[in-house]
Amino acid sequence: MLGIRGMFWNPAVDLASSLEEWMDQTVEDMLRAMSPQVVPTGTFAPLVDCYEDADHLVLKVEIPGLNEKDLDVTLEGNVLTVRGERRLEDGEKKGTFTWMERPYGTFVRSLTLPDTVDPNTITANYTNGVLEIALAKRAEAKPKQIPVTVGQKTLPAQAAA
């Protein structure tokens, strides 16, 4: 087959060339995606875990690199809000980083609490980069144990008299 300028056209060569260009572009895109990038400072939302047992609801907020003066925990109605700011350490400058993945700047995280918690019994403790907030449950919200009798029929109090 004759192609442009009288040369023979070989579809296999064109396919191989196209495949090679596609592979080169794919590898470049992957390397660009993995290259160091500077994450801008600003706002971010810290990660929160929540678990409960019979007596408490416990929140764990992951915010390493803060001082207690950088944290503000408030309760308004049934909305618990954690605010703070993660700053660069003394001597660090934003422009000197080669790689920056941890977010810096202010953060706010608000969580609506269930009515089962007692707002007067909240404690907050910041240890090893994790803020743990414990909220006691109201007495009426705690599970009640119901006794079970075996083989006896219980009568109401009035019927027994």
Can you describe this structure?
The longest helix has 24 residues, at 11-34. A hairpin with a 3-residue loop joins β2 and β3 (56-62). Residues 35-40 have low confidence and may be disordered. This protein is of the alpha+beta class. It contains two helices and eight strands. The chain is elongated, with a radius of gyration of 31 Å.
CATH class of the largest domain: Mainly Beta
CATH topology of the largest domain, anyone?
A: Immunoglobulin-like
Beta fraction = 35-45%
The value of Rg in angstroms is 31 Å
**Could you say which overall geometry the principal axes of the C-alpha atoms support?**
elongated
Main features:
4-stranded mixed β-sheet, single chain, Immunoglobulin-like, 161 residues, alpha+beta
What is this entry, summarized?
This protein is 17% helix and 35% strand. The protein is of the alpha+beta class and 161 residues long. It has 2 domains: 4-34; 42-139, Immunoglobulin-like, CATH 2.60.40.790.
Topology:
Blueprint: H1 11-34, E1 42-44, E2 47-52, E3 56-62, E4 71-76, E5 79-86, E6 105-112, E7 117-127, E8 130-137, H2 157-160
Parallel strand pairs: 1-6
Antiparallel strand pairs: 2-3, 3-8, 4-5, 5-6, 7-8
